[in-house]
Write a structure and sequence with these properties.
It is a single chain. The chain has one helix at 18-22; strands spanning 14-15, 29-35, 42-43, 47-50, 53-57, 65-67, 76-84, 95-101. It is mainly β. Strand 4 (47-50) and strand 5 form a beta hairpin. The radius of gyration is 13 Å and the shape is globular.
C-alpha cells in the first residue's frame, strides 16, 4: 500500500491507515511497532525506540501520521506489525503490512 497523498510535499505529514490496510478495528489493537522509519522522520504518536523503530500503544493508531525528513529519504518501505485482540480477551500473533513511501 502506498502512503502518498495528492499534492503533498515529501516533508508534509500524511496518514498511515494501518488498521485499514490490515482490515482490523483500531479498538482491537493492543500494541505494535513500525520499522524502517527513515532517520529524521517522525510519527504523530508512539515512542521512537531509535534505529528506525517506533513502538505503538493502544490508541496510537487513531489519526496516525508520518512526517518524513525535509531532505527526503528516497523510496522507503515501512514495516508495520500490530498485536490484535480478536475477541477482546487475548492478543493474537502480530499481523504485518508494508507501506511504501516515495
Amino acid at each position: 500500500m502506498m502512503a502518498e497523498p495528492d499534492n503533498a510535499a515529501w516533508e508534509d505529514a500524511f496518514p498511515l491507515e494501518v488498521t485499514k490496510a490490515l482490515d482490523v478495528h483500531a479498538e482491537r489493537v493492543v500494541g505494535g511497532a513500525i520499522a524502517n522509519v527513515p532517520a529524521g522522520a517522525r510519527l504523530s504518536a508512539g515512542t521512537d525506540d531509535g534505529g528506525g523503530r517506533w513502538s505503538l500503544s493502544e490508541g496510537d493508531l487513531e489519526g496516525l501520521t508520518i512526517s518524513p525528513p525535509v531532505a527526503g529519504a528516497g523510496r522507503t518501505t515501512l514495516t508495520v506489525s500490530l498485536l490484535v485482540r480478536p475477541d477482546g480477551d487475548t492478543a493474537q500473533p502480530p499481523e504485518t503490512v508494508a507501506f511504501g513511501l516515495t
